[in-house]
Amino acid sequence: QGVSCTVRDTRGREIAAALEGLAIVDWHGKEDVQRQMRRAIKAALRGGGAPAERIEALTARVMDVARARLR
Q1: CA angle 54-28-57, nearest 5°?
Q2: What is the DSSP annotation of 4-59?
Q3: Which pLDDT does position 53 carry in this prediction?
Q4: Which residues, in sequence order, are CB contacts of 26 under 8 Å at separation 6+?
Q5: Of 44, 54, 56, nearest to 17 (Cα)?
Q6: What is the pTM of this model?
Q7: What pLDDT score was predicted for residue 1?
Q8: Residue 9 has pLDDT above 80, yes or no
Q9: What's the CA gap between 64 and 32, in Å, rounded?
Q10: pLDDT at 4
Q11: Cβ distance 43 to 64 under 8 Å?
Q12: 51 DSSP 8-state letter
């Protein structure tokens, strides 16, 4: 469990850093930027060993959080 939490925390930080780097002015309305964000999220989730069947749902949840926090 401890190793899993460490990996999850590391992946979370990687995703947050990637999204912050991509969050330009008015990114909410720019589909190309959102596409890049989704790609970065999916790559980090796959790298973290997330189950393939959950990647889409997890990506959508992360994007929802990003929309709320990255303004």
Answers
A1: 10
A2: HHHHHHHHHHHHHHHHHHH--TTGGG-HHHHHHHHHHHHHHHHHTT--GGGHHHHH
A3: 95
A4: none
A5: 44
A6: 0.77
A7: 44
A8: no
A9: 17
A10: 55
A11: no
A12: -
